Amino acid sequence: MSEKNNRVFLIGHLGADPEMKETTTGKKVAHMKLATNDTYQTTQGEKVTETQWHNLVAWGKLADKVEQELQKGSEVSIEGKISYRSYVDKEGLKRYVTEITVLELSLIRQAKKAEV
Questions:
Q1: Are 70 and 46 contacting, i.e. CB atoms less than 8 angstroms apart?
Q2: How far apart are CA 47 and CA 40, in angstroms?
């Protein structure tokens, strides 16, 4: 039962191509920025759309899938869990990061590649 206590479901578009890295132990990791939109109407009848940006991280085989299938603009559905971490930056300041660790990912619509 405790496995379901920390779950996030999002549908949105990638704001940039995924950033791929490999840990010192050889494990692949993908970092992505996902944009989700919420639209509502003000009391004056004006339609307002707010965009929220979410930091996503995918590991191992999911990172492989991300690398092969996703690019800027791809529409995806994800299920994940919220993770918090901190690190010390180059200036010695402690920084905090909130991100979603992706557990499941589905491509809804592939972005069209720009022709050069």
A1: no
A2: 6
* Euclidean distance between CA atoms 14 and 67, whole angstroms: 13
Label residue 114 by pLDDT band (50, 70, 90).
Answer: low
Tokens of 55: 């930091």
- Residue-wise pLDDT for 61-98, tens only, equals 999 999 999 999 999 999 999 999 999 999 999 999 99
- Cross-strand partners of 57: 31, 101
Torsion of CA 71, 62, 20, 55, to 10 degrees: 80
Model pTM score? 0.83
> Token digits for 101?
């660790």
Relative to beta strand 19-22, strand 8-14 is unpaired
